[in-house]
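Case study: DUF397 domain-containing protein.
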Amino acid sequence: MNEPTATSDIRFSTWFKSSYSQPSESACVEIRFGAGHTGVRDSKAPGSGQLEFRGGAWFQFTTWLIDGRQSGPANL
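Here is what the predicted structure looks like once written out:
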């Protein structure tokens, strides 16, 4: 995954496709980082809303996915 780059406001940071997305895949997510926030949205429907992770929640979530844990991430 790409490393976060902090900006003063997440609304002004640039969306980018996940490093795990393949060019041939039609389903992928876009991510943007801000100071203490991570935004995630559907690349095929960017205007339909986004998820926002605060603090270390994005790191906890992606670590949980990579580790393949069966229980949900704490404190999301």
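For the exam, be able to explain this: The first helix runs from residue 57 to 67.
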